[in-house]
């Protein structure tokens, strides 16, 4: 966050790594982030492809992140993995377009379980996160994000492929002023 909303973060490990500066990242942290955020979905897509191709129908919805789109500070390994996943999404969409498989990315802005865990120790940051959103709040995973994912997985999305759908209350429009104090 900028200005008064700036919050000090520890280097406590989180879902895909540790919050910290680029120069302090290790190969192991980057490998872990890519393993979770990129290779896992890549392997799943590769395994599902022959079955979807055989049916002539398939829907892949990759959960990406505004962290990568907006280059959030302190989360390099997560950002890199999610942007690599968006590139994989577009590449697979292009290569698989003639097979009946559509591949899209969804960038949610919601109070996920991981977000809630992180905010337990930072209630002022949680409040500021909602206030920065053009809609004035963070999304609800079930009421705001799930319907968009359901659409992308439906027959209604048969002509939608290679897209990134930002379901974030407009947070991607001007970016998010994510500027935590880093060690």
Give the integer mean of the pLDDT values: 87
Distance between the termini: 15 Å
Helix-strand sequence: EEHEHHEHHHEH
DSSP strand tally: 5
Largest sheet: 3 strands, parallel
The number of distinct helices, counting runs of at least 4 residues, comes to 7
Notable features of this structure?
two-stranded antiparallel sheet; three-stranded parallel β-sheet; alpha/beta; disordered N terminus; 5 strands; 12% strand; 183 residues
How would you briefly describe this protein structure?
The protein is an alpha/beta fold. It is built from 7 helices and 5 strands; from the N terminus they run ββαβααβαααβα.
Structural account:
The chain is an alpha/beta fold. 48% of the residues lie in helices and 12% in strands. A 3-stranded parallel beta sheet has the order 3-4-5. β1 (13-14) and β2 (17-18) form a beta hairpin. α1 runs parallel beside α3. The longest helix is centred in the first third of the chain and has 29 residues, at 27-55. It is globular. The protein starts with 12 loop residues before the first strand and ends in a 9-residue tail after the last helix. The model is unreliable at 1-14 (pLDDT under 50).
